[in-house]
DNA sequence: AGACTAACGTAATCAATGT
DNA sequence: ACATTGATTACGTTAGTCT
């Protein structure tokens, strides 16, 4: 049945993942001045928006929500904000907005572990392919690989050497 | 060519789930 | 109760965009 099918196709998927791993990162998003305005306004109100606010901002800006979390250079803006807004940030009394609800990965863990054995740094194409195969959203997959690399560094990639370049932090 | 900054990385930590 | 693991924060590096 469906489980067996997944196992059968997983080998094909894994070689595809391996091929895609060397490819480019996600295409760079260009954030327009009006979109920047929206972000800056939100930043004034709250430096640590929860999942709901981030989704709302993404909708207003017309870009995928995950980019907001990544693309906000708080340190860069901190200077501007310090000049523009005389007031220090909101008091610590303000309740923290809820974070993203934990995604249940368990049913798909095997597939990710097998992919991890091939490549530790899947590029965007490989992540999208895994997302398509598993139904787990790509941004969650990126986080999964980050956590996996941090917590299971001993599991080195297997298989023939390929051109994947170890990034230096 | 240099400034700016999105994409992506690690490290530490918070917090929900699994045992 | 504790271990595991997804999500968040802070900051550093790489590389695309723009003047």
Automatic annotation (TrEMBL):
<keyword id="KW-0371">Homeobox</keyword>
<keyword id="KW-0677">Repeat</keyword>
<feature type="domain" description="Homeobox">
    <location>
        <begin position="95"/>
        <end position="155"/>
    </location>
</feature>
<feature type="domain" description="Homeobox">
    <location>
        <begin position="22"/>
        <end position="70"/>
    </location>
</feature>
<dbReference type="GO" id="GO:0000981">
    <property type="term" value="F:DNA-binding transcription factor activity, RNA polymerase II-specific"/>
</dbReference>
<keyword id="KW-0539">Nucleus</keyword>
<feature type="DNA-binding region" description="Homeobox">
    <location>
        <begin position="97"/>
        <end position="156"/>
    </location>
</feature>
<feature type="DNA-binding region" description="Homeobox">
    <location>
        <begin position="24"/>
        <end position="71"/>
    </location>
</feature>
<dbReference type="GO" id="GO:0005634">
    <property type="term" value="C:nucleus"/>
</dbReference>
<protein>
    <recommendedName>
        <fullName>Homeobox domain-containing protein</fullName>
    </recommendedName>
</protein>
<keyword id="KW-0238">DNA-binding</keyword>
<dbReference type="GO" id="GO:0000977">
    <property type="term" value="F:RNA polymerase II transcription regulatory region sequence-specific DNA binding"/>
</dbReference>
């Amino acid at each position: 049945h469906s489980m067996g099918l997944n196992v059968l196709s997983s080998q094909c998927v894994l070689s595809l993942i391996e091929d895609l791993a060397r490819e480019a990162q996600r295409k760079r998003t260009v954030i327009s001045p009006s979109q920047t305005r929206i972000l800056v306004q939100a930043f004034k109100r709250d430096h640590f928006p929860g999942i709901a606010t981030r989704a709302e901002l993404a909708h207003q800006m017309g870009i995928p929500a995950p980019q907001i979390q990544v693309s906000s250079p708080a340190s860069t803006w901190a200077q501007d904000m310090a000049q523009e807004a005389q007031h220090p940030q909101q008091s610590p009394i303000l309740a923290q907005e809820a974070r993203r609800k934990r995604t249940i990965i368990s049913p798909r863990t095997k597939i990710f572990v097998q992919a991890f054995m091939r490549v530790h740094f899947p590029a965007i194409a490989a992540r999208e392919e895994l997302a398509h195969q598993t139904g787990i959203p790509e941004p969650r997959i990126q986080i999964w690989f980050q956590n996996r690399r941090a917590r299971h560094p001993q599991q080195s990639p297997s298989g023939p050497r390929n051109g994947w370049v170890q990034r230096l932090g």
